[in-house]
Write a structure and sequence with these properties.
The chain is an alpha+beta fold and about 180 residues long. It folds into two domains: about 60 residues, no CATH class; about 100 residues, no CATH class. Strands 3-2-1-4 form a four-stranded mixed β-sheet, covered by helices on one side. Strand 5 and strand 6 form a beta hairpin. Helix 2 packs antiparallel against helix 3. The radius of gyration is 18 Å and the shape is globular.
Length: about 180
């Protein structure tokens, strides 16, 4: 029982502290079934055993609903807005990945984790292309990616020497990620 609560807490931290509802939804999808035996009931077990996560409690003290305080509205279709972030892996995977790229669809809360060898632009672009392929395979178009991660923003931007501004290298065309050099 303690082991399951601990493993659920570790997953909660690895996925960048999702809400209990989002974590239960992720476990319910079976996304991690091949890697973990955890179930949505283990989220309740984690909460009973550990109480509230200190990082989550601190975050909630300063939390404002994004859609209330922002000009963005909740997504109305799957793939309209997919949030993603990087998580450094404690040790490289068997495939040589050092980063986990975590994707969460704003509408459905569908969560997917892909591996990346580095934070470099082309490695991240490969992950974005894989994510788009997953959505396309299910009959959905992926319309936009959102991230507030500084390494991701730096990776996806090119400095323009004349006016020292940054322009995104990533464009979504017909639900595909592309880079100007890709043609």
């Amino acid at each position: 029982m303690v082991l399951r609560a601990t493993q659920t807490r570790q997953l909660h931290e690895f996925l960048c502290h999702p809400s209990d509802r989002a974590l239960k939804s992720t476990l319910n999808q079976g996304t991690f079934a091949q890697y973990s035996h955890l179930t949505p009931a283990d989220v309740d077990l984690m909460t009973r055993f550990y109480g509230s996560c200190i990082a989550c409690t601190t975050g909630k003290m300063h939390y404002h609903n994004l859609h209330i305080t922002s000009t963005t509205f909740p997504s109305t279709i799957i793939g309209q807005r997919v949030f993603f972030d990087l998580q450094l892996l404690p040790v490289p995977s068997h495939e040589g990945n050092t980063q986990a790229v975590i994707f969460v669809d704003d509408m459905s809360n569908f969560t997917n984790v892909l591996g990346s060898r580095t934070k470099a632009h082309y490695d991240l672009l490969d992950c974005l292309k894989q994510q788009i392929s997953i959505f396309n395979a299910e009959g959905h178009r992926l319309l936009s990616f959102c991230s507030d991660s500084e390494p991701i923003c730096q990776s996806m931007a090119t400095p323009q020497r004349q006016n020292h501004t940054y322009h995104s290298r990533l464009s979504l065309s017909q639900g595909r990620a592309s880079h100007p050099a890709d043609g």
